[in-house]
Amino acid sequence: MVSFEEIQAANYMVAATGVLIAAVYYVYNMRINQRTMKTTLETRQTQLFMQLLALYNSKDFMLDYARVAYEIQYENLEGWVRKYGPQTNREYWASWGRVGRFFDGTGILVRKGLIDADLVIDEMRELILLAWDKVKPWVLEARINMNSPHTWENFEFLAGEARKKHVDFISADDWNRYEKKVLEADA
Prior knowledge:
By secondary structure, this protein is an all-alpha fold. The chain folds into two domains: 1-45; 57-186, no CATH class. It contains seven helices and no strands. Helix 2 crosses helix 4 (90-111), helix 4 (90-111) crosses helix 5 and helix 5 packs across helix 6 (153-165). The radius of gyration is 29 Å and the shape is elongated. 18% of the residues are buried.
């Protein structure tokens, strides 16, 4: 006959086995949840990147960018305001703002880790760097003259990250000199 102690020991072993199985199941579930969360995060970042890319590649954005990078010419903030300010030239002022805010917003997403910096920089490096070269004097002067120290700071951050990754990329001035040389040769 089986003694009470043996039954009690068997009961403890069954209970311990149940706890062990529950712990293994819990760890297994946690790992699956972590993988699912990682996949969900990557999917959301990819969707966000694709939305940015759709805007970035739109005709309207490219026209705004072309205005900012190639048509707008200014010596200083005061000259810019006289020529392209909202009272003088709303169309160019709006293009300037849309391009600056697009890259500033993208910089926020990169800085906060909400989107992969390499994805953004690898795809948009030319426009980021050339646009920053163009707006940088305006931004630096606006920060001082308008007492706005954070104006487009995330755009500046994004351009800094792009420049670190692509040290040898041409500047806007280099491009403009090259373009001028080509156009003069055609004339």
